[in-house]
Amino acid sequence: MAQANSKEPKSIQKRLFLGVLLIPFLALLTALIAGAVVMLGFGDDPILAYQGLFQGAFGSGRAWSVTIRKMIPFILTGLSVAVAFKAGLFNIGASGQFVMGSVCSVAIGIHFEGLPMIIHLPLAILSGMLGGMIWGSIPGLLKVTTGAHEVIVTIMMNYLASLFAGWTVYAGGTQGQTPGPLWDRTARAISETPDVFASAQIPWLFGPPYRVHYGVFLALIAVVIVWWLIYKTTIGFEIRTVGQNPKAARYAGIRVEKTVVLTMGLAGALAGLAGTIETLGLNHKFAPEFGGQVGFDGITVALLGQTHPFGVVIASFLFGALDAGAAKMQFESGVAADIIQVIQALVLAFVAAPLIIKALFRLRSGSDEGHATKLNTSWGGS
Prior knowledge:
The chain is mainly α.
């Protein structure tokens, strides 16, 4: 019995090593090899391309700053998706929550002139988080009250967020349509908000041309808080229990409906914080095109990080590097920058199918059953 107990920690360590580190690393390596094959198929030089990618991501101090800057929204949207995964939920709505966080934070940031930074900046950040949290809670509320699946609802709410944000900064039309309430009148026909006041801007850690702001520390603090919440608190235990088996959780006295709404609200707050930091720290204004695909990339980041908060940081760093090096790769080798999106899609495919990685690298099977369960329960509803 004692021998069996002594073997158990080694088994756990092995599962963590395979699940959190080895398989994601091998998935990324396989995706890079597959990307090289794709480049060869189009007559491009993959070695030259990857050299450019590395230089663009790590070749200089400015390259490092771009990599760090780009990983910030990946961390927070990845955490958003990962937290939802823990409760067996699939948050496709990080993109909409990101946008709502941006709009709410900029609404506070362009008003209240003269307010001291110690009040104005936290107020704008909390406003953005609240906007994302409300937007994320709605799919959770609809799921527990009507049975509406969160995947469908969050997709639709992404469109609603995009339309709402577009309306707030609408520049008006040639036929007398009314401009949006947050539109910058000095921008004339351009649909965007004014710059937020300096008192609502996140200060630079390294100013231009590096443009790295203190938002990176906010993101890392959020990682630690989420890790503590998920693995060290009763709420986190309830979230994980609901994700593993909602019926068993209810039998154990856990209020599943409350946990689902709470989890989606937390996921929304994290994605909203991502939009807030991008707005207050980098862009200092909001325009509809600033949202991009970062919300959807959060899904890939969360899966590559095995839905673990610290794994999400590593995955975000890799994705930040891929994004930062894409332009240099294209410039150095002539390869289309879209090949980066192909590599990201391949990473997602290989991470979501660990049996392929095990078969390719002849790893022993049965080490990540927990991961497979997590993916299954995320689609299983309650």
